[in-house]
Every structure is written in C-alpha cells, then in structure tokens.
C-alpha cells in the first residue's frame, strides 16, 4: 500500500472518528473524495528539499511591556 | 442624482455646493433599498450612523474644516468588518446573523476619521469562502449578482462590495482578499479593485480567515479612487502587529513603465478574456515596455494553499467544533472544514518555510519590472445558479494568485472590455511589495487611454 493511500485512509478514519456523528454518508463520501487533492498538494511541498536552517517565514519577538 | 461619480468629482461637487453629504448619503440609502434586494448585495443599511456622520461632515465643511477627499463621501463595508452601535457583523453566515461587536474595526475607524459616511454593511460569501464553497449561492443573503447581468455572479468573496460599486449604489467599498476576493468581484462587476501589500492596512476588527494572507482593500469607480481610499486606511496600527511601520501617502507615478507578462498566461483562458487582454496590452505598449517572463518551477499554489488550509482550520476551529457549519447555506460548506482540520503542523510549517523561498523567487523575477500584467480572471462572471465547474482550465496555473497572495504582493484590477454577452473582463497589474503607487499609476494611465470604466450597466443608471 502506498504512503498516500495509507495517509488517505488515516485521514478519513480520523474524520469519521472525530466528526462521524454529525456527518451523513453523502458528506463523508465528499470528504473522502476531497482527500486525494489535499494529499497531492501536501506531497508537492514535502518534495521540496529544505535545510535545517530554513526557518518559517514568521518572526517571533519576545514581548516586553513598553518596549 | 450623482451616480457613478468618482470620489474626486463628488468631493469637488460638495466643495462647490452642488451637493451635500446628507444628500449623497440619502441617495445611497435610497439605492440600497431599491437595488440591494435585486442584486442581493446588502446585509444591513446603517442609516442612523450614516445620517449622523453625514450631518457631522456637513457641519464641519460649512465651518471650514475639511478632512480631505473622502469627507462626506458614502461607502459600504464588507460584512466582516466589526462595527459598534448594535450594527450586526454577520460574516455572511446564517449562524452568525445576529453577531455584534462593541468596537469598530480599524478601517472603519480610519474612514470615519477621514469624514466618510458608512451607509451599509455589504454581502459576502459565508466566512469569506473559508469552508470551500463551490457555487455562487454561499451566503445567507443569497447569491449576489453582477449589475451587468442578474443571471451572473458578482464574484466573491467581497461580493456585495463589487456589486454595490458596479451598480453605482456606493462610490466605494472595502473588501478583503485572502486569495482572489477583491480581484474576482472587481473583474465580474467591472470596477477597480486594489489588493494592497500584506500589512499595508490593519486587519484589526476584520474576520480572520488566514492571519498571514488576509488583506483589506478598496473597490472603486477607478484606479485613482483606490489610491485616495488606500491613503485613508493605510498605516501602522498597534492592534495589528503585521502592519508596516511607515505611513503611506498616495503619490501616483506617471512615466514610461516596464511591464512583464508571464509566458503562456493566456493558456486556457476564455476567448473574450484573451482577446481583451491582447487589446489592453496594445494600449499599454504605447507608454510601457512589455516583456515576456517565466517563473521557475516551484509549488507556488501548494505552498499558498497549505498555509491557507492550516490557518483557516485554526481560525474556524471553534466554529467547526461547535457544529455551526451545519447551518451554513452552501451544502459543501457544511463539511468543508473537517478534512482541512487534519493538515499536520509540520506540513503547515513546511509551507511557511517554503514561503520565504517563494518570496525571494518573486522578487528576483520581478525586480527589473514595475509590474506583472495578466487577465484578472480566466473567465467572465459565472452563471448565478450553477455550481462552479470541477475543471477550470485557467485555475490550474494561478501563479498570479498564488504568488501574489502567498508573497503578499499588491495588485490592482481595472476593466479591460466586455464579452459578447456584455460581461466585463479585467486586467490586473501586480507589483513588488509596497509598490502601490506604481501599480496605481500604471492603471490610472491605462484608464486615461480607455473608456471601459466609464461604461455602466443600463439598469442602474438613474
């Protein structure tokens, strides 16, 4: 079984576990179908190599009142 | 009645005594009542506040106190801007239809300080499209129409902002864009719309869809008006740490500009869109150099989409957990958030790490140019009663949208012509970060050489 298939099954089961009680069959089927493009999108960003020093593009600044 | 006048024209008319702020406010309110339900572009008419602000403007102007070009000018705000005084702020969502705030968003406050008159809260796609809507009917106020055809959609998510300006109901409106939400209604409604650089305008008091992608900006009759409004709303705000430090003033540039167009940008675009863009380029070549460029391979759309997915899932976490999505209008919005809530933190952070590379690529590609031009949308307004097609050829390579929003770059859209059906098309000018004066200058010069922006839908003329 491919990684993306495993991931899809994991995500779908997680949606069913967390929210299954509020979703009908049609909605669950639509969610399942939406997982393929989402995983494909995530795979695209996972494929780009990054260095350990590549930081997230947001800067944390410690807070100090009146400074 | 002073309809379809620019802000400069209205301001001059007020100064000369040809009209007065109270008259302008009352005219807008009358048109909101008459045409708001026709277009589905209005949520709340803020009559009491409007008449109070208009009266105050009139008194001040008579006393010689002039706050500038927006003094006494009516405007409408997308209904995600917090407003005090018991005025609802619904975010376009049925379960939040009675939501109220006890403060004004910074943009609302700044426009009040500029003397402008808030006449309405305008319709929007529920939660600014954050649940993944797939049709125009995704707002509790109903699908919003473009004034050019009641059978076609206004665009979204700043639907009412585009529609009300296009119908001459308000001289200008404020919208928000996370990915396309100012430019899309500008395109579909035939008006000028400016997406400022991220951080140029405070987001304080505006609904958050994606903290690092959301921008607020004006929709107006022309590019010049966008500059006037931006000057009033731009600037640092301690309540929004993302705002740029410097104050911004509108000083449009007029010179020989150097423009770029992405290779094969017309691939998959509708014929009218492509033809009008080619004609627009010919006009631009009279005062600009236009060169073809290419962006290197990079997952631009995946990066921006992953950031949007992760942040939207967090922004609406409480909404989702409470099960409120079940009450939304579009059926697909009732479950759209659940899958997105599964994006892993490491994937979201990976997208943020790739964002810096994307910003540097954009700067490297664009640094020799004043702006990149492209059709604002790949198609004219979509039929109002049909779901969006699953396959939209022009949407597959939306580099302009992905890079522009992911890297926080400014872009302005102005009308570029019409289709055979009489629906408007638009051209956008995307600049390097903080280059609003340049892109407004280019768009202004384009509008001085074309007349698309002074054509108005017959149904809404006086």
Describe the structure.
The complex is a heterodimer of chains A (67) and B (462). Chain A is mainly alpha-helical and 67 residues long. Helix content of chain A is 58%, strand content 0%. The longest helix of chain A is centred in the middle third of the chain and has 22 residues, at 25-46. Chain A is flat, with a radius of gyration of 19 Å. In chain B, 35% of the residues lie in helices and 15% in strands. Chain B has 14 helices and 13 strands. In chain B, α9 (300-315) packs across α12. The longest helix of chain B is centred in the last third of the chain and has 22 residues, at 345-366. Chain B is globular. The mean pLDDT of chain B is 96. The interface between A and B is medium-sized, with 26 and 32 residues.
Main beta-sheet strand count, sense and barrel state of chain B: 11 strands, mixed
Instruction: Give, in spatial order, the strands making up the sheet with the most strands of chain B.
Output: 1-3-2-6-8-7-12-13-11-9-10
Strand/helix succession of chain B: HHEHEHEEEHEHEEHEHEHHHHEHEEH
Low-confidence stretches of chain B: none
Separation of termini of chain A? 55 Å
Specify the number of helices of chain B. Answer: 14
- SS strand fraction of chain B: 15-25%
Structural class category of chain A:
mainly alpha
What is the SS-derived class of chain B?
alpha/beta
Average pLDDT confidence of chain B is 96
Low-confidence sequence ranges of chain A: none
Radius of gyration of chain B equals 20 Å
* Share in helix of chain A: 55-70%
């Amino acid at each position: 079984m491919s990684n993306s298939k495993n991931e899809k099954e994991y995500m779908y089961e997680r949606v069913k576990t967390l929210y299954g009680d509020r979703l009908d069959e049609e909605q669950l089927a639509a969610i399942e179908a939406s997982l393929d493009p989402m995983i494909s999108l995530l795979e695209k960003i996972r494929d780009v190599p990054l260095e350990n020093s590549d930081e997230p593009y947001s800067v944390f600044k410690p807070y100090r009142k009146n400074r | 009645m002073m309809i379809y006048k620019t802000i400069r024209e209205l301001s001059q008319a007020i100064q000369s005594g040809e009209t007065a702020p109270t008259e302008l406010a009352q005219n807008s309110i009358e048109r909101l009542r008459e045409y708001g339900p026709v277009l589905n572009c209005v949520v709340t008419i803020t009559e009491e506040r409007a008449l109070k602000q208009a009266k105050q403007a009139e008194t001040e102007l008579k006393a010689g106190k002039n706050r500038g070009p927006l003094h006494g000018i009516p405007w409408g705000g997308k209904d995600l801007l917090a407003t005090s005084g018991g005025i609802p702020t619904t975010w376009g969502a049925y379960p939040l239809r009675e939501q109220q705030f006890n403060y004004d968003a910074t943009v609302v406050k700044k426009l009040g300080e500029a003397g402008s008159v808030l006449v309405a809260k305008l319709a929007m796609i529920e939660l600014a499209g954050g649940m993944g809507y797939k049709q125009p009917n995704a707002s509790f106020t109903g699908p919003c129409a473009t004034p050019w055809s009641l059978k076609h959609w206004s665009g979204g998510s700043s639907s009412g902002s585009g529609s009300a300006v296009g119908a001459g109901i308000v001289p200008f409106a404020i919208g928000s864009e996370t990915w396309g939400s100012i430019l899309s209604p500008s395109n579909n409604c035939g008006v000028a719309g400016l997406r400022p650089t991220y951080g140029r305008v405070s987001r304080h008091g505006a609904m958050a869809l994606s903290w690092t992608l959301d921008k607020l900006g004006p929709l107006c009759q022309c590019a010049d008006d966008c500059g006037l409004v931006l000057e009033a709303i731009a600037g640092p705000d301690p309540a929004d740490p993302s705002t740029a430090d410097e104050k911004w003033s509108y000083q449009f540039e007029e010179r020989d500009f150097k423009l770029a167009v992405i290779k094969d940008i017309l691939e998959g675009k509708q014929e009218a869109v492509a033809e009008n863009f080619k004609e627009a380029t010919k006009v631009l070549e009279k005062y600009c150099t236009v060169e073809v460029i290419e962006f290197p391979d990079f997952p631009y759309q995946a990066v921006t989409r992953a950031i949007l997915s992760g942040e939207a899932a967090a922004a609406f976490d409480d909404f989702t957990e409470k099960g409120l999505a079940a009450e939304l209008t579009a059926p697909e919005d009732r479950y759209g958030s659940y899958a997105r809530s599964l994006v892993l933190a490491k994937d979201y952070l990976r997208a943020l790490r790739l964002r810096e590379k994307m910003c540097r690529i954009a700067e490297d590609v664009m640094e020799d140019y004043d702006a990149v031009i492209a059709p604002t949308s790949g198609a004219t307004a979509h039929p109002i009663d049909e779901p969006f097609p699953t396959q939209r050829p022009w949407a597959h390579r939306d580099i302009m949208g992905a890079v522009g929003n992911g890297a926080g770059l400014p872009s302005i859209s102005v009308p570029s012509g019409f289709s055979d059906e009489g629906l408007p098309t638009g051209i956008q000018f995307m600049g390097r970060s903080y280059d609003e004066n340049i892109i407004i200058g280019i768009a202004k010069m384009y509008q001085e050489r074309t007349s698309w922006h002074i054509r108005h839908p017959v149904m809404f003329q006086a």
